[in-house]
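Board notes, transcribed. Complex of a protein with magnesium ion.
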Amino acid sequence: MSSNRSAALNLFQSRPKTVKERDNRKITSYYAENVFTQDKLRAYLSNDAYKVYNQTIADGKKISRELADQIAAALKAWAMEKGTTHYTHWFQPLTGTTAEKHDSFFTLSSNGAAVEKFDGDALVQQEPDASSFPSGGLRATFEARGYTAWDPMSPAFIMDIAGSKTLCIPTVFISYTGDALDHKAPLIRSLEALDKAATGVARYFDRFVNKVNATLGWEQEYFLIDKAMYYARPDLMASGRTVFGRSPAKGQQLEDHYFGAIPERVFNYMVDLEMECHKLGIPVRTRHNEVAPSQFELAPMFEEANIAVDHNSLLMDLMDRVARRHNLIVLLHEKPFAGINGSGKHNNWSMSTDTGTNLLGPGKTPRNNLQFLTFFINTIKAVHDHADLLRAAIAAESNDYRLGANEAPPAIISVFIGEYLTKALDAIEIRVENDLKEEAENDLKLDIHKMIPDVMMDNTDRNRTSPFAFTGNKFEFRAVGSSANCADAMMVLNTIVASQLNDFKTKVDKHIAEGEKKDSAILKELRTCIQTSKNILFEGDNYSDAWAEEAKKRGLPNIKTTPQALDALTTKKAHHLFGDLNIMTEREQEARHEIYLEKYIKKVEIEASLIQELAINQILPACIKAQTDLIHNIQSAQNAGIGKNMMTAQQHILQKISESIHAAHQGILTMEKEREKANQMKSTREVAVHLCDHVKPHFLEIRNHIDELELYVEDKLWPIPKYREILFNR
Ligand code: ADP
Ligand code: MG
């Protein structure tokens, strides 16, 4: 067997399978111990300063430099007590990972004495060497600098890596001119816009509402494989997915993995990971196997969306780090293995008031239900009007392999609401003007509380194939990719719902100004929303071809690839939407579009190079060796006087191998020609589209030949670990 593959298998076999001693303390005894929580802030800050802090946050004002100094001192005191030596501004650039640059508290004072220093300046703003982060031309055009700026809404935390502790301060990353260079800045702006819009509407129902938070509970799917297997697969290392690999005889057909017993080695990893999460205040609660072999999921309690986004980004780092400690590797790619399920990151989203109401939770009384219906229907309308933006928000080279594959939501955005709510919406829609007035006057006989029984909360009325499903008291955006930063999807959702709610309120207020009763005005507008958005509702099987047909008839877009999907970012409609709500300027949107296209191009280029290299210098040589062996065998047989009719197996295998070697090689040559053409093109979009339409299709074509070779070439000659070795080894 090839030395790499057999070394990997041997290493894997020799892994200790026993558990190290577990720390069985109660979770509550260490939960958030590495987070600078409100409680700690209060303990380390003077009473006066704490009061000022609370007032500043409540008023949504900027934290003064003086207060920042006091908070920095409190942070430093707490962090140093815990043995922290360094601090970093922690941010989420558009590269797709988190970034940090560590500075030591230690410095020399003017007289040369060694001191530990951390003040308001260091807390509030830093200037990382940002030239290598993507900026889509923003910094280049204006100023070569980027800044990280403290986000006081997300608590600082201590990262403990191999006993060395660093204080991490969540920040946004912006250019000198204030343009957003990260995922978080637009997200925060969208949360503010949603707060304002939703508070306005929520006050129709409860005048004590002063703030509305978006809530997010993500569910993170991932694959976990042995580290040795990973290092023996150059494709996994470079692109996060296997570019070759024949489906094993036993795939997921038997569906025996889902919710099955968690293998011990994986279990150890999960326990370790959860402890790290809990210390960092990430409220992880559930863990289970997923559908595919070696696929798993974890999910936390939902949180305020900004914090939930930070927690998910932090989690993705932690997962990688903890897995390596266990000689495992986490694969966050949306489709690491062909022929079995890919991974997503369901984003459960809702809105909640400072009075404690979940605005997407159906109530027990008709009044509450009108509130519920208002937010529910406005969300549907927003998704209907801006489905293209939601599609763009989940667009990524890696997610293209998953969306529309037969286990993932298709690239068609539709909304599932279940049988009961469909009936409820129908009921409102068919009511005429007089009905609505009467309804409102007679204290709302909407009866919807009867139509949304508890069964709604049950799994039975759930459609698992929908990209955007209502699941009882929240919407679940399921088309988000497992490797994505949740911020983009959430930013778009917040923005479109904010815009829709603003529009809704303007219209309702107008009816009221014209003398209409409030409830009747609301119902009337809701009816209009239903009428103009119901073609986005779909209750059937989203994976079926029939739905693709039906969606086409309804005029719903089915944008299958990233370069096309990203066009939505630069339409006039998008410019207005994001501009009007101060989420992003036209320039920021254009920059983002450029960055995402560049990212797409890089990813495709990497995979193309990889396919070429892996095929030419590892796989094909092994196949040629097999070919030579067969030729020798056939020649020897001839010399020994064995008739041709006794050599059909060898002939057949030789034929298959020769054909596939030839075809794979031809595929590579054509792919390389197309790549050269792409290089000649001028605009980023042209390059991306060419790579998408003329280079990527060869990936699959080449793969099919190589996978065929995997069947015909003697097992021990095959140079890289096979699917069965990567996926089923425990
Ligand atoms: P599932 O059947 O999809 O696993 P769960 O009830 O377990 O459903 O919830 C999945 C996720 O939804 C969890 O992260 C949970 O915290 C989150 N969630 C529940 N309620 C809300 C809400 N109001 N807003 C946002 N997320 C929520
Ligand atoms: Mg779910």
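The CA atoms of residues 597 and 685 lie 7 Å apart. Residues 599-728 form a domain with the Four Helix Bundle (Hemerythrin (Met), subunit A) fold (CATH 1.20.120.1560).
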